[in-house]
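::Amino acid chain::
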Amino acid sequence: MLSSTDVAAIALTIKLAGLTTVLLLILGTPLAWWLAQTRSPLKSIVGAATTLPLVLPPAVLGFYLLVLLGPQGLVGRLTEFLGLGLLPFSFPGLVVASMIYSTPFVVQPIQQAFSALGERPLEAAATLRASPLDAFFTVALPLARPGIATAAVLGFAHTVGEFGVVLMIGGNIPGRTQVLSMAIYNHVEAMEYANAHWLAGGMLAFSFLVLLVLYARGGNRTQ
């Protein structure tokens, strides 16, 4: 059965994944639009930086974030100067790390959806005297809704399964930074396999459901 610590870890994980997904959709959608539309020479650099978490080991990313957000880091000094304290080993720190780690899972599906629109819808909007901003909100966003929905699902699911990055940035503080993956690790380390099965089985079912929904949506769009 689930203990109160397990329930708290599940609640914290859902809170973290939900907040991370919302923030990434808000910040990642304009970035995805820029990547899909720009011809700037900076596109390759920004695209590579956005995709970097896909290939960078989580422990490496977590380590450099810990250095950057720590008392000697540039961001850490800034947050202390602003009276915000340090982000490592806190929930806000988990949010920042999760956003960076899950960025490609949100930005790439939206970028692909924008790229698939082509130029005709925007040209038609321009002939109706719609400004670029109007065309973005009234044409591009509605047509890209399937990609945005996919991005939201992938971003949420990826954040739920995080381990290495949250371990480096948040540690393993029950009720504050202990997420679901850390709770499973604790049970396995303590040889409490029954408790680990409950949590791991739930994550397995959740992951399969996410993939099932994505494949079902993809299959329906091709028909």
Residues 64 and 168 are 9 Å apart (CA to CA).
